[in-house]
Amino acid sequence: MICAANWKLNKSPREAEAFLRDLRRNLSIDHHQEVIIFPSAICLMLTGEVLEGTDIGWGAQNCYFEKSGAFTGENSPEVLRELGATHCLVGHSERRSLFHETNSDCAKKVAAIQGAGMVPMLCVGETLEQREKGQTNSVIVQQLREGLQHVHLEKEFWLAYEPVWAIGTGKVATPAQANEAHLVLRNELTAVFGASKARTVPILYGGSVKPENAHELAQQPELDGFLIGGASLQLESLLKIHSEANR
Ligand code: 13P
Question: What is the pTM of this model?
Answer without folding.
Answer: 0.97
